[in-house]
């Protein structure tokens, strides 16, 4: 909403209201604060660095934008008496429209997704701000009034813009005259943030967060003697971190650089710094975050590496260098081989890009393999990104074995729902004469761990992997073997464990029992013909009376739910009902002479078998009526 006309004159002062979601955010930030309020300065310095990068890129085709001011940098000054902190850059700057529409990174980072995650608990929500990264608006953590003046490169001095807000729901914007291009931000500091008006405090923050930025950060030094002039001192190395030898870069430097490129508040789990020389020449610095971003599963979410060509910034989201299943990897790639007039089309079709993508993918997977050596750290990674990694089995056939080796699963032998068992672990524990990796899919761990299909495997002490992610059954259609061992879903097709020694050499169901049950099987087949493909005796049950089995290539319940949620209609598939003739309920069913009661009992046993699989009944009310009739009779 604006108090000015819909189309104000170019030089008219306007008072505008923040969007409702941004107002909520500002209120939260002002009242809850960051757990570490100094972060605001890192965000503002990072934005200024990006503005310089964008100017360098535009100046490749329009060198006149640099004019006589080609030395790009950041200048910071403090005034303890006025209680202000001022940050200026001579980067790309902004036009009036850009100020109104794009001020602050949160407007481009999914504000609504952020707001959805607010709980109302100010302490928890202040941590959430730190997870999200809110760019320019973080200034209100330390300031109760912010004034910004900016002039876009190439615009006239009279086309500069002045923006001001107290963070209370409104801001003003008006034209302003500014001789130099770039942006100046003045923070009028809160009483609780007076420490940021001290030069030594600002210097320590810059040393902590901006040492890695390839742009000089100047801090104003007040003259010590009367009559002497104030001076600007460069307080960072102003050298791109990735161009420095690894031996000269500390872990703290890498962690600070990750926070800059990843807009994160936590340290990365792992990183890889590599320089390639030879046929191709490029440097890469890749990071594995410890936290999933909000837009991880949004197809149009921001992803990709920062791309530089000969240390000239080209773009923020060069997604062509890594496959989609590695979209969580953050970092930069700086190439000497790509031409400077890089375009989107060139990036999509270049042989150089294909070679670099293959190498960077391999390096990313190697980095994850190394991280897997630390179970605690890898568990944190896998909890955040395990489902995304599984997409790689369909997307990246060349690296399928590497990806499979990085997967983790819950197991029938651990007694816990944690996904911590690797395929290598499973193979190392396989029974003598076992040549198959067994698994079962279910909606959740409890359903999987209590599946009747596990009964024979428990008796034989054969481990089964419990797969409970929504995409697991889809994933297994691409993962057919690992290290020479084939996979088998224990709820599909025939299962034969006769060659594997177990607690008992005796079969669960004898040949004689199966023969005696033939009449019952025929009777059940007739009663359930509309709902099952067939009925047969089983050797896989020891405690349950029935279970549902699918043919080897039929889609399971999990696959059906996934495809139908995506809007794809699945053909009707009837399951196979297997009965355990040694179970007392099956024996009583065989003795039932009342056809109506037999039909009710058959339907109840079928529905119970479906419930045990985690499936939803098509007609729960009919199931309840049958149970009530049986209880009353």
Describe the structure.
With 633 residues, the protein is α+β, with helices and mostly antiparallel strands. Helix content is 35%, strand content 18%. It contains 22 helices and 22 strands. It has a nine-stranded mixed β-sheet, covered by helices on one side. A five-stranded mixed β-sheet has the order 10-11-14-12-13, sandwiched between helices. The longest helix is centred in the N-terminal third of the chain and has 23 residues, at 39-61. The chain starts with 13 loop residues before the first strand and ends with a helix.
Molecular shape: elongated
How many helices? The count is: 22
Mean pLDDT: 83
Secondary-structure-derived class: alpha+beta
Identify the strand order in the major beta sheet: 1-6-5-4-7-3-2-8-9
- The whole-angstrom Rg is 32 Å
β content, as a range?
15-25%
Distance between the amino and carboxyl termini? 70 Å
Q: Helix share of residues? A: 25-40%
Uncertain parts? 1-9, 104-114, 122-133
**SS elements, strand count:** 22
Characterize the main sheet: 9 strands, mixed
In short:
The protein has 633 residues and is of the alpha+beta class.
Fold blueprint:
Layout: E1 14-17, H1 20-32, H2 39-61, E2 74-79, E3 84-89, H3 96-102, H4 111-116, H5 122-132, E4 143-151, E5 160-165, E6 170-176, E7 182-189, H6 199-209, E8 217-221, E9 231-234, H7 251-262, E10 270-276, E11 282-288, E12 305-309, E13 312-318, E14 330-335, H8 344-349, H9 351-371, H10 375-390, H11 392-395, H12 400-406, E15 410-411, H13 423-428, E16 436-441, H14 445-449, H15 455-459, E17 465-467, H16 472-476, E18 481-482, E19 485-489, H17 511-516, H18 518-527, E20 534-537, E21 546-549, H19 557-565, E22 576-579, H20 584-591, H21 595-612, H22 620-632
Parallel strand pairs: 2-8, 12-14, 16-17, 16-19, 20-22
Antiparallel strand pairs: 1-6, 2-3, 3-7, 4-5, 4-7, 5-6, 8-9, 10-11, 11-14, 12-13, 15-17, 18-19, 21-22
Helix pairs in contact: 1-5, 21-22
